[in-house]
Design brief:
The chain contains 15 helices and ten strands. Helix 10 (about 320-325) crosses helix 13. It has two domains: about 35-220, no CATH class; about 235-395, Rossmann fold, CATH 3.40.50. It is an alpha/beta fold and about 450 residues long. The chain has helices at about 5-20, 45-50, 95-100, 125-135, 145-155, 155-160, 230-245, 265-275, 295-300, 320-325, 360-365, 370-375, 380-395, 405-410, 410-430; strands spanning about 35, 115-120, 170-175, 205-210, 220, 250-255, 280-285, 305-310, 330, 355.
Length: about 450
Amino acid sequence: MPPRPLLFLLLIVLSSITAATPEPEPDPCAGRLIHIRRLPARFNTDLLGHCGTAFPLADHPSATPSCASLANHGLGPRTHNRTRSWYRTDERLLEPFFHRRLLDHHCLTEDPALADAVFLPYYAALDALPFVLEPAMLNYSGVHGVPLAQFLAANSPHILARRHGHDHFLLLAGPAWDYSQPPDTDPRLWGTTSLLRRPEFDNFTVLTLESRAWPWQEHAVPHPTSFHPSSLARLRSWIARARRSRRPTLMLYAGTVSKPSRPNIRGSILAECANRTADVCALVDCSGACTLDPIRYMRPMLRAKFCLQPPGDTPTRRSTFDAVVAGCVPVFFESASARTQYGWHLPAGTYDEFSVTIPKDAVVLGGVQIVETLAVVPEEEVTRMRERLLELAPRVVYRRHGSSAEEMGQDAVDIAVEGVLRRIRRRVRTLEDGRPEDLYSLDDDDHI
C-alpha cells in the first residue's frame, strides 16, 4: 500500500482527470433518424414532366413558359423579381417541396434498419390527377396507389415488414376526403380516388391538408401560403409590417362570391356584405386564380381586422393561413375548419387567444349578424388576438428550402416532422410492449 501522502496525491490527480472529462453530449438524432425510401421515378419526379398536360391548371394564367409552377422546388415563380419571400404557390406542389425539405433534414440515415421513421416521397396528389381530370380514367380511380403497394411489397420487403408500416409516413397535398372513396363504389364518384382505403397503407401516418375526424392515421398540416421567407430578417420584416398595418376595414371575405343555390353560411356572408360599406365588409372575388396572385388578397387582408373563414366544399381553407400571416383575426363558423385539424401547429386549446368563433347555424338559421358580433369586440382585445396570431405565424409558414431552422425556428415542415416522429415512437412502443389493441385508443399529443 502506498504511503498516505502519495495516496492522497494520487486521489487528487484521479479526481482532477475525472472532473476534466466532459460529459458526452446527448445525441440530437436519438429516436429521430429518418430514412427516405428510394422510389422509382414514376412515383415522383417523372410525374412533374406531365405538368403541361396532366395538370395544366397548376400554372398561373400569365406564366411562361409552361409548367412555371414547378419553379423553386414547387414554390412556384416569384411574385415579382425583387422578392425573395413571395411566390405563386400551387398547394398541389407541396409534395415535391416537402420532399426537397426532407432532403435537408439533419437526422437522415441511408440504412433503413437504423431508421426510426421511413418517409415515402410519393407525389400522391399529382399521381391522382389523371383519375380526376381524364373522364376515361374515372372508372379506374379505385386502383390509385396499387402500383406503390406492389412495389413496397416486392422491393426490399423487409423495410415494410419490420414494423408492419407503423414507422412509414407520407404527405398528401389535398384533403383526405378526396382520396377515401371505397374501391368498390359503383358508379365512381367524380374527383376522388381510393388511395386511403387501400389496406396496404392502413398503418402509415398520412399528412394531409385536411383530415377526417375518425381515421387514427391521418393528421392535417397547414395549407401552404405564398409566403416562404428565406431568412429570419425577412420573416421579422413581414411580421413587423403586419403588426403596424392600419386596419380601417372591420371584416373581409376572400373567396367565391357567386350566390349559392341553397342557404348556407357563405350566402349569409354575401347577403350581409351586400348591404354594408367597404369599411365594414370587404369582398375579394377569388373565383379565378386568386391563390396564385397573393397581392390580390394580401393587401386587403392587411387592412382588415377580421377575416371570415366559412367552410366550402370541405371545412378547411387556405385563406385561414393567409389570414394568420396577414395578422387578420380569423373568424370560424365550425370547429372542423381548423380547431380539430391542425393540433400540432395551432393546438385546439389556444384558439380563443387568436380567433373568433360564431356557430354557422346561429347565423344561417338564428339571425345572428356577423357584423354586429364583431363590432362589439373591444379594440384592445382585437390587438391582443392579432399579437398572438403573429406569434404563431412562423409555425404555419413553409420557409424556403436552404434556410436555417437554427436561425428561424421551427416552421410548418419541422413541426409536422416532429409530430410524426412522436406519433411513430408511441406506436412502436405500444407494439413492442405487446399492446397492439391500444394503437386505436392512443390520444394525440397536440401541444406547443
